Amino acid sequence: MYWEEERECMSREDLEQLQLERLQATLYRVGTHVPFYRNKFFEMKLDYESFGSLDDLRRLPFTTKQDLRDNYPYGLFAVPLRDVVRIHSSSGTTGMATVVGYTGNDIRTWSNLVARILTAAGVTKDDVIQIAFGYGLFTGGFGLHYGAERIGASVIPISAGNTRRQIQIMQDFKTTALVCTPSYALKMADVMMDMGINPSGLSLKYGLFGAEPWSERMRRQINERLNIIATDNYGLSEVMGPGVAGECLECNGLHVNEDHFLVEILDPKTLEPVAPGETGELVITTLTKEAFPVIRYRTRDLTRFLLEPCPCGRTMRRIQRITGRTDDMLIIKGVNVFPTQIESILFDIEGTQPHYNLVIDRVQNEDRLTVLVEVVESLFFDEMKKQRLVIEQIKKRLASELGVGVEVKLVEERSLERFNGKGNRIFDKRRL
Ligand code: DLL
């Protein structure tokens, strides 16, 4: 089943023509309305009005997360705030956060693209869809919500957390489709077991999972334990949110909504295209965004194109599930966390040393981040009460600024291993 067959199955030739026209319009939009791009084009002596082919894309400058931060909060908006009807932000504190905006049209496009992804993954207007992503600045909750409403499905906007209640509602409201992170789906399966609920007695049929990396092993577990068909969907707030790419029921790679996003896969070192089918960094140019268009946004996500046509009939190219990142961003319980954020909070707290380790593991299908931080000798040998206070202070700051709970352990000065004088700080022990 398709949501917009004429688009999703269009010929490559028509698609490329449409992409070129939309790229030209986007370049005009940013070239006239966004000083950041106007200056870049000027410096590069780039005459975007002469763009006659998609190959010219390679002449365009890149956009990075740092550019978004440097222009915090509204510097990259291509419309006045008066035309913006929604603002979202990726996790992080002021300065680290990135802010994105949507016009009314952008919201309609977004809903439509999420509707495509939901339809491809089996959801119809007859479904009862439980959205267990956080509603708020994170794009997951509202993004999926609007798409599901667009289809006409019955939406349960339960948001994240309170797993027992989620399951109770799933049972009572006869939920047929579940939307959340893949690890949360497994956590739900655990809690169902604790509650003595047999998933095959529920009405669940489909699960749409995204916002964090997962694996085929996890897919098998989810399918078996929840008795559903689990599909992967991908997106990022800087580009739109969910709705950039999603799997069809072939469950073999994610169709990119290429009529709205121009995707490249580049070697992260040379920034040149990799050979067809090779793994590299996904770089995305938006083609229809009004409020927040981005040119060649470096996602830092690693993937590759799947070259064979998909039996589902969609012509939109597929990417393999995201297999890693080219930076040190961590995704903890679906929340993006940069080690530098943790570092700057730790450095702010009296008694800590600039040496820390981050240990991430998954305990009963839930991510756990433990921060080990060296503290000055006097504090380490001080009374327990004082240490507890420091721990509490760090925990509170980290929880409020990262948006995710953290365990904290104080360790003795010089007890964390140094490699080349530099701490090897991240120990991700999760097995996906
Ligand atoms: O996670 C948007 C989203 C919400 C996608 C709900 C799908 C479902 P951000 O918070 O900006 O946006 O995080 C984006 O999360 O660059 C990837 O590293 C990672 N990510 C998102 N989807 C997947 C996925 C949302 N399916 C960052 N597989 C991206 C692996 C994913 N990683």
TrEMBL record:
Known function: Catalyzes the activation of phenylacetic acid (PA) to phenylacetyl-CoA (PA-CoA).
Name of protein: Phenylacetate-coenzyme A ligase
InterPro entries: Adenylate-forming_Reductase, AMP-bd_C_sf, AMP-dep_Lig_C, AMP-dep_synth/lig_dom, ANL_N_sf, PA_CoA_ligase
EC number assigned by the record: 6.2.1.30
Entry keywords, A to Z: Ligase, Nucleotide-binding
Gene that this sequence comes from: paaK-1
Pfam families in the record: AMP-binding, AMP-binding_C_2
Protein's pathway: Aromatic compound metabolism; phenylacetate degradation
Source organism of the structure: Desulfofustis limnaeus
UniProt similarity note: Belongs to the phenylacetyl-CoA ligase family.
Coiled-coil region: none
Domain AMP-dependent ligase C-terminal: from-to ranges: 334-430
All residue ranges annotated as the AMP-dependent synthetase/ligase domain in the record: 81-285
Organism classification: Bacteria, Pseudomonadati, Thermodesulfobacteriota, Desulfobulbia, Desulfobulbales
Reactions the enzyme catalyzes: 2-phenylacetate + ATP + CoA = phenylacetyl-CoA + AMP + diphosphate
GO MF term (any one): ligase activity
